[in-house]
Amino acid sequence: MKNAAIYPGSFDPLTNGHLDILERAAEMFDKIFITVAVNNKKTAVFNGEERIELIREAIKEKPWKEKIEIEQFTGLLIDYARKKDVRILLRGVRQISDFEYEFRMALTNRRLAPEIDTLFLMPDEQLTFISATIVKEVAAWGGDLSSFVPDHVAKALQDKFRDQNL
Ligand code: PNS
Question: 97-105: which pairs have CB atoms within 8 A and are 24 or more residues apart?
Answer without folding.
Answer: none
